[in-house]
């Protein structure tokens, strides 16, 4: 049976960081030389981001986690960073999930499966368990957590939900993705770390995916096909690893070029598999979604 995405919910931490304030904060860190300061200015100013939300607090408030009273970033261990994830991730995930459920026409008691995704922290029993417990989802609901697949994990999470709905008609799947990237901030002169500090923020998003009869009047989105490809290179250009002082991001300038070089071949293959080419572009934009 066809799966439909019937609702979406989102949540962000209360604290907001203006991009200009974040730029000045990182540029003022001890050990940042003139070249690094210029790179920080360019990365933050050209990011097309006005503000981001963060669980570590607002820059300029004097109460930002991992910084001393003078605003100098400390270098806390991975355990300290993950402890904040454990406190902050569940309520944010729950807020997004409640919003998605409230818009869907379904009740928590109707949910048959929970699929969660996150790569910025870990604990077990995790957010999937907390959603079942705190929302009143039946304890028999099947739970799946997708960990450490990066920001693209929403796609396999939605794919899993769609496959569940196809295999078990009538399923109601709660999908929830939460990332708290600011937990892993650090002062650095490394260009790749500077880019990561300039673009990632904190938030949660949830969706209800189902093959059951709709409960509300709101329109739904039919979930079509999924496709995955591996590029011929780039493994060393975008990665996410666990370090002693937080998780470490590598994001080089080659990533957009690799995507630009490879995307045409991927699209041709998808079209050859029988996807209607007229669905790719319409007057209302493209219903296709992509992520590296």
From TrEMBL:
The lineage of its organism: Bacteria, Bacillati, Actinomycetota, Actinomycetes, Micrococcales. Residues 3-211 form the Chalcone/stilbene synthase N-terminal domain. Keywords: Transferase. This is Type III polyketide synthase. It comes from Candidatus Microbacterium stercoravium. PANTHER family: HYDROXYMETHYLGLUTARYL-COA SYNTHASE (PTHR11877), TYPE III POLYKETIDE SYNTHASE A (PTHR11877:SF46). It comes from the Bacteria. GO terms for molecular function: acyltransferase activity, transferring groups other than amino-acyl groups. GO terms for biological process: polyketide biosynthetic process.
């Amino acid at each position: 049976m066809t799966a439909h995405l019937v609702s979406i919910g989102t949540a962000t931490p209360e604290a907001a960081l203006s991009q200009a304030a974040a730029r000045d904060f990182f540029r003022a860190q001890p050990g940042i030389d003139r070249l690094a300061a210029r790179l920080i200015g360019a990365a933050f100013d050209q990011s097309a981001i006005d503000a981001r939300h963060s669980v570590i607090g607002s820059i300029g408030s004097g109460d930002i986690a991992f910084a001393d009273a003078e605003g100098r970033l400390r270098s806390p261990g991975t355990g300290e960073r993950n402890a904040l994830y454990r406190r902050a991730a569940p309520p944010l995930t729950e807020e997004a999930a409640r919003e998605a459920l409230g818009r869907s026409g379904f009740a928590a008691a109707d949910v048959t499966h929970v699929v969660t995704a996150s790569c910025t922290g870990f604990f077990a029993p995790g957010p999937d368990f907390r959603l079942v417990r705190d929302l009143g989802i039946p304890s028999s609901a099947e739970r799946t957590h997708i960990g450490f697949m990066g920001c693209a994990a929403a796609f396999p999470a939605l794919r899993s939900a769609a496959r569940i709905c196809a295999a078990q008609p009538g399923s109601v799947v709660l999908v929830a993705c939460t990332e708290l990237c600011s937990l892993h901030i650090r002062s650095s002169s490394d260009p790749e770390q500077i880019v990561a500090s300039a673009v990632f923020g904190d938030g949660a998003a949830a969706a209800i995916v189902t093959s059951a009869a709709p409960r509300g009047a709101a329109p739904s989105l039919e979930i079509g096909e999924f496709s995955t490809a591996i590029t011929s290179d780039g493994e060393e250009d975008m990665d996410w690893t666990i370090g002693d002082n937080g998780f470490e991001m590598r994001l080089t300038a080659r990533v957009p070029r690799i995507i630009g070089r490879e995307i045409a071949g991927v699209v041709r293959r998808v079209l050859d598999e029988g996807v209607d080419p007229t669905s790719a572009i319409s007057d209302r934009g493209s219903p296709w979604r992509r992520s590296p």
